Prior knowledge:
Layout: H1 2-36, H2 53-68, E1 72-75, E2 81-87, E3 92-98, E4 118-120, E5 123-125, H3 133-148, E6 156-162, H4 172-178, E7 184-187, E8 190-191, E9 195-198, E10 200-209, E11 216-218, E12 228-232, H5 235-244, E13 248-251, E14 254-258, H6 273-283, H7 289-297, H8 305-308, E15 312-313, E16 317-318, E17 320-328, E18 332-341, H9 347-359, E19 364-371, E20 374-375, H10 381-394, E21 402-404, E22 416-418, E23 421-422, E24 436-438, H11 439-455
Parallel strand pairs: 3-6, 3-7, 7-22, 8-23, 9-21
Antiparallel strand pairs: 1-2, 2-6, 4-5, 5-24, 9-20, 10-18, 10-19, 11-17, 12-14, 13-14, 15-16, 17-18
Amino acid sequence: MHIGGKMNTKIQEKERLYKKMEENFPKFLKDLDRIVSIPSFLKENDDRFPFGEDIQKALETMLDICKELGLKTFIDPEGYYGYAEIGEGEKLVGVLGHLDVVPPGDLNKWENPPFEPIIKDGKYYGRGSQDDKGPTLAAIYALKTLLDCGFNLNYRVRFIFGTDEENLWRDMPRYVEKEEMPTVGFTPDSKFPLIYAEKGLLQCKLTAKNQSGMVFKGGDAFNSVPSSILVEKTAGLVQALDKLKYEYTEKDNKIEIIGKSVHAQVAETGVNAINRYLHALSLSGVETKSGKFIVENLIGYNFAEPIFGEVKDEHSGELKFNVGKIEFTPENEILCIDMRIPVTYDKEIIVKTLTEKAKEYGFEYSQHDYLKSIYTPLDSELVKTLMGAYQEVTGDMESQPIAGGGATYARAINNCVAFGYVLPNSPKTEHQPNEYIILDDMKMAMKIYMKAFEKFRV
């Protein structure tokens, strides 16, 4: 009877917790509207804010939401980061999320404007809904629900908000330099059950003299496969596109070559519109250094094998290679490249190989950004705690921690991993048109985060 009584009590507590979560969910959605409606992608050259007024507004709005929910808040006077904290004790659990987003890209590919969030067929649509505003707010509401139900928080939780995750990570070094480091942490910016290793992220530019006379540019970000590129129409280009069976549309004297945008960490699953344009351009008889480089090394290959050979390891899979942006100025051809390097490979060998290959085509290599790979042992207390929370809530004992190609804030501090929000069999829509979250998945994520906060208790 005693055991049965304890079981009944636990069931009742869980039911009460989940009922409160449902009660809080409409308010969660309203607060999510407040931040998703802000077009917080990078706009530099702003004298007042490091990454533009909209990113600053998103940071201030998130801190306002946290303050309304009863958390103490702080904003960096320079606008690089902010945080919200609650609880008491020496132990500090950090939850790291970012409030900047990638640009929406071609607005014609959105069924609804990207910064006018809408719920349809059980899905919440809007840029940042999955990456990373929705998951970050879900973690906040998970803790709020626990506290509403009388949870004894005998440690501190600090939600740390970044502003430059999609670009050069100029935010987190400022936090690390100025603020207290969490004892342990996670970032809700990937997928469940847990990411225990992340590939090295290397972004670079290849620059060569432009002898073609062409001037154009395309692509939105290093870390997105470009979904389209709008270029001058010529009869030769149209013939080449038809021969290659590449999708395109005609607009006045322009041709829009169609691709499929995905995150650069899974570049091989997308369709790169820049690569297709350079391929068709070459076939039409227009010679460029970029075209020769792309046709010979990327067309027909998933992982740039002609450059590197096979680069993969057991933990994290293949090297990923994405031409995210291109620009032909009157002087130069510039390719902007994003690579995800397997955790056991030496970055310098990758750089040396690419530099030598690029030189054959007249390109010079320059580094744009680099984040080293990370690896958290599977038998660490952090991994066991979070995996326990995931398994207890979902009952999924088959899914195992995975290595990923994404670059999350887990790299920013020690003893931190990426933990959710996307469930194993649900789609990742980050960086794509019509980005969305499944509402039932978000509720499941909240339940998992609640259990994680319970397990962090001292």
